[in-house]
């Protein structure tokens, strides 16, 4: 009898807590998938509809599995999955979503939960991507649409292979409340999960493989990289025309105008109908703007007013709870999508509207659907919360793809699997320094982020915000509340115009860098930690502290860098903030040159700069090439040839690949694109000839050697 009892107890224990062995399958070069327990069919990748960009992954080539497989431990117990990944002593971690205040994530405790950012890096953010990257050159992605608890080197097991030293707090000043931890541990509230591991050999390689697994980064239309003005929320058709006219008369570039809630007859919840008093002829207004080279983007949220024409038909396919008294469509159901996105198409996309700004899909527990809500598909409220932003991006993007017209818009939430979507995240937070940290972290999260400009207390703040915004994925003033214009502060209007024109001049560079994002997975805006030669050697960090203290560069580059970043292949941007007259810039190893003048700046050192109010510090690496075009009021149209000035910096011979396609359609997916190689040295420059049968929007090419 006793034997039977012991056997029964053993069976129960094994059922309740089952250690799992993972069978790793290489699904792409350098990418492995492991399955634990019984993963849920609805996950981040399925919600996003992510399809790997196989050509890009194959081009990266093979690599070995980057971790000791025996040190990865998984357990399924009580309907939950426990994961444990090894962590070396000198290893730093990056990622875990769009964080606003921290780049280093080791030692953090996070709950990865889609939410509006509330001023604390605790995992609740607009894109809580469950993907992390190690300084040792690998990445890990957890493909689950659940709230994931993360202990990123913060928890200590009793049976650790490398236990922390026990210290006496009474007498030992080195005692710490956070002892050394040798693992990343996660709790996924599901009885199984898919795990992806990405090889390096560098951290950048791991990020690239992650983005390429998700389809490659987005490739916006050329006009999306121009300048954007979002108008005050009740602006009418005449106001739109007046806005475009003012930009033209004052000589400011403008590529699209964003209409805020007032374009709809009612909002919060939404009718999705044009307000006939403010926009009596929407099609005429949209087409008139297109003739002027200005596109229209529409704000919306997905919560359906009882007065919307689709309310009754979509009601059976909505959740149990409302948001602002609006019905919440279950976007996992084809019937709901047909009705909802059909409404976003009819009388909007089909009359020439170029994109959407999708608001309020992120969070706010006080107004969004609660976790007790139910949806007719059977997917939980939690799963819907984690994927709603993804699905809004996916299905609006598909509308435009079916039209063979590219779009570029804004969204308040994303997640793992969304790298290929042409949307930029924004929010209600407005700390300039934290905006730059978010821009840095976006490169680890497979997302884009804009440090948008809304309003400012002083002309100095206005200019400083505008300057950094120009070096971001979307150059935009969001005047939905303030009604601000680029010329709102007359005392800095000339400087604002100079930077707005610079944005347009740099379009060939930005466009080529986004092409690398799409075809190669390289984030166009990213942390210094992904730049070769920047981060101090791990052995030095661990064993040669004295050397670090004697070398200011090594000391600075070993610390968390949150206020400078790489913009494309060749540019280092170090924004200035209100009240600053000088700042320090960490220049990686290799010679660097001032972007504006070509003057030598330094090599593997920390420099102090006093740029004045007119500029922010920007540097170009040795041999760097920046293709420029003339400043234009609007982005070039398909087939419009534009002259290119190739600026070359430094002493080393430089090579750059300039991307070209029609700039507006998806024909590049069928091979209608080209990369042309630019070579420059002190002796002169050349560009490879145009490829016969491919788009060629490049006119005359000249070369400018930037010297002091």
Automatic annotation (TrEMBL):
Keyword Transcription: no
One Pfam family hit: DUF5110
Superkingdom as given in the UniProt entry: Bacteria
Domain Glycoside hydrolase family 31 N-terminal: 78-146
Position of the signal peptide: 1-19
UniProt similarity note: Belongs to the glycosyl hydrolase 31 family.
Name of the protein: DUF5110 domain-containing protein
Native source species: Mucilaginibacter boryungensis
């Amino acid at each position: 009898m006793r034997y039977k009892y012991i056997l029964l107890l053993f069976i129960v224990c094994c059922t309740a807590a089952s250690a799992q062995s993972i069978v790793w399958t290489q699904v792409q070069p350098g990418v492995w998938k492991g399955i634990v327990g019984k993963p849920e069919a609805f996950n981040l990748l399925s919600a996003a509809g992510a399809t790997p960009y196989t050509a890009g992954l194959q081009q990266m080539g093979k690599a070995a599995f980057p971790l000791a497989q025996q040190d990865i431990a998984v357990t399924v117990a009580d309907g939950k999955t426990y994961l444990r990944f090894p962590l070396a002593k000198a290893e730093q971690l990056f990622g875990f979503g769009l964080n606003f205040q921290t780049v280093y994530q080791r030692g953090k405790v996070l709950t990865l939960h889609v939410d509006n950012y509330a001023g604390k890096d605790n995992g609740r953010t607009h894109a809580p991507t469950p993907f992390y990257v190690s300084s040792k050159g690998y990445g890990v992605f957890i493909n689950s649409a659940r709230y994931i608890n993360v202990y990123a080197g913060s928890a200590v097991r009793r049976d650790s292979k490398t236990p922390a030293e026990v210290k006496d707090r009474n007498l030992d000043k080195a005692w710490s409340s956070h002892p050394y931890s040798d693992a990343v541990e996660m709790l996924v509230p599901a009885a199984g999960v898919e795990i992806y591991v990405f090889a390096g050999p560098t951290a950048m390689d791991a990020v690239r493989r992650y983005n390429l697994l998700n389809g490659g980064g987005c490739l916006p239309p050329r006009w999306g990289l121009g300048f954007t003005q979002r108008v005050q929320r009740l602006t009418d058709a005449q106001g739109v025309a007046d806005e475009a006219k003012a930009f033209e008369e004052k000589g400011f570039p403008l590529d699209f105008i964003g209409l805020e809630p007032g374009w709809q007859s009612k909002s919060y919840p939404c009718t999705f109908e044009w307000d006939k008093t403010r926009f009596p002829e929407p099609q005429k207004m949209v087409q008139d703007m297109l003739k002027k080279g200005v596109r229209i983007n529409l704000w919306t949220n997905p919560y359906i007013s009882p007065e919307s024409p689709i309310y009754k038909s979509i009601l059976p396919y909505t959740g149990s709870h409302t948001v602002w008294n609006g019905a919440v469509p279950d976007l996992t159901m084809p019937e709901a999508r047909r009705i909802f996105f059909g409404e976003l198409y009819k009388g909007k996309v089909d009359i020439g509207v170029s994109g959407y700004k999708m608001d309020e899909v992120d969070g706010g527990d006080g107004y969004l659907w609660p976790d007790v809500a139910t949806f007719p598909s059977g997917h939980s409220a939690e799963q819907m919360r984690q994927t709603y932003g993804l699905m809004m991006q996916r299905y609006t993007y598909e509308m435009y793809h079916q039209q063979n017209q590219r779009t570029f818009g804004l969204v308040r939430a994303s997640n793992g699997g969304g790298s290929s979507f042409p949307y930029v995240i924004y929010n209600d937070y407005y700390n300039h320094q934290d905006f730059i940290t978010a821009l840095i972290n976006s490169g680890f999260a497979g997302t884009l982020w804009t440090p948008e400009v809304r309003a400012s207390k002083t002309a100095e703040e206005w200019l400083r915000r505008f300057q950094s915004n120009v070096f971001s994925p979307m150059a935009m003033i969001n005047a939905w509340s303030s009604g601000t214009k680029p010329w709102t502060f007359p005392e800095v209007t000339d400087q604002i115009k100079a930077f707005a024109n610079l944005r347009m001049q740099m379009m060939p560079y930005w466009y080529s860098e986004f092409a690398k994002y799409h075809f190669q997975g390289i984030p166009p805006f990213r942390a210094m930690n992904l730049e070769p030669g920047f981060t101090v050697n791990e052995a030095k960090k661990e064993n040669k502290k004295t050397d670090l203290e004697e070398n200011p560069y090594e000391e600075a580059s070993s610390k968390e860098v949150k206020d400078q970043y790489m913009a494309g292949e060749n540019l280092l941007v170090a924004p200035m903030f209100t009240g600053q007259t000088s700042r320090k810039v960490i220049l990686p190893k290799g010679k660097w040159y001032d972007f504006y003048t070509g003057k030598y700046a330094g090599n593997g050192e920390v420099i102090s700069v006093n740029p004045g109010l007119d500029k922010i510090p920007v540097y170009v690496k040795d041999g760097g090439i920046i293709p420029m075009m003339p400043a234009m009021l609007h982005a070039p149209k398909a087939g419009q040839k534009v002259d290119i000035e190739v600026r070359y910096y430094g002493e080393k011979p430089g090579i750059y690949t300039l991307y070209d396609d029609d700039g507006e359609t998806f024909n590049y997916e069928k091979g209608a694109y080209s990369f042309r190689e630019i070579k420059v040295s002190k002796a002169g420059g050349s560009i490879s000839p145009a490829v016969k049968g491919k788009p060629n929007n490049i006119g005359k090419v000249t070369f400018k050697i930037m010297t002091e």
